[in-house]
Amino acid sequence: MTNRFEPVEFTAARSSDGEILNALSVDVEDYYHAHALASYFTRDTWPGLERRVVANTTRILDALEAKGLHATFFTLGSVALEFPDLIRDIVGRGHELASHGMAHYRASDQTRDEFFRDVSRAKAVLEDAGGVEVSGYRAPSFSITPDNWWAFDVLEDAGYRYSSSISTGHLGHGNLQVPAQPFRPGAGRLVECPILSMRFMGRSVPTGGGYFRLMPYQIFRRSLRAAQRLGALPATFYYHPWEIDPDQPRAKVGAKTRFRHLVNVRHMENKVDRLTRDFPWATMRDVFSPAILG
Q1: Which single residue of 56, 151, 185, 232 could bond 241 by disulfide (Cβ 3.0 to 4.6 Å)?
Q2: Mean pLDDT per 10-residue run, the chain (294 residues)?
Q3: E strands in 56-207
């Protein structure tokens, strides 16, 4: 298929004090799912590893509840199969349940048929556990690229309404030519809501994950405000439950990979707390509903 970039008419929602309303999202996976650690925590070892995703996700849920905030939880189907009570807790507290695929395979590592089976099963498993419709999907490692653009057609065929699978500033996986605003990547109605990028040290970086942990908070806040002013667009912030867990099992990996995975994990909860106080937040569904449902 020809890669499409049809922007969707979109006016950013505003909070009661006039600020752009941003989307808060959590990619629900465990520490051993991280691709940076794939050479050490190989898939054949996963069944015997300590599970920490329930405790860490519950900490996030408690922190959001204390502030009266709601987020979108892009959740692995495998987590839902193993811990259905966690899925019911996410839904029961008023958050949006969305899909992160079944078993953390990158979209770019699957054939079209494999991808269809993966996202279809994940949607069914999550809906069965949560008792709600699952409309959104996020590819692990933002792994929808110009080489597998067909994935968007597959997502629509599987019943999804939107994706948040492209980071315009994610080095190695991003596509800097895509629009920063929501757009239709295929001939159907599915909408991609890309991760807004910021400028940092001369590079375009995403709003979340390891870059958030690495950057001094004041610089991140200033960069995010500048990016929003440039396009009058909402940010989509993302993080993982393992990023608030300094006591997670350590992998025997090289210094660079260890730094990438663990940098400032001990300070992550405090930084997220500051972020949620300094900007207004809501779910993907609430922030982008005019584009998704229009």
Answers
A1: 56
A2: 77 89 97 93 96 98 98 98 98 98 96 98 98 98 92 97 83 59 91 88 84 94 89 92 96 88 94 97 94 75
A3: 72-75, 96-99, 136-137, 162-163, 183-184, 191-192, 197-200, 203-206
Residue 23: inside a domain, yes or no?
Answer: no
pLDDT, residue 16, reads: 87
The number of folded domains in the chain is 1
**Rounded to 5 degrees, what angle do the CA atoms 260, 279, 143 make?**
40
Considering the domain boundaries, does residue 132 fall inside one? yes
The residues near 117 (Cβ < 8 Å, ≥ 6 apart) are none
Chain-centre distance for alpha carbon 180: 16
CA nearest neighbour of 78 among 44, 126, 45, 43: 126
Q: List, in order, residues 6 or more apart from 282 with CB less than 8 Å away.
A: 13, 21, 22, 23, 24, 69, 70
Which domain covers residue 93, as residue numbers? 29-293
Q: What is the pLDDT of residue 1?
A: 47
Does any domain span residue 226? yes
The answer to whether 198 and 227 have CB atoms below 8 angstroms apart is yes
- H or E segment at 23? strand 22-28
Query: What pTM does this model have?
Result: 0.95
CATH of the domain at 167: 3.20.20.370
Domain presence at residue 12: no
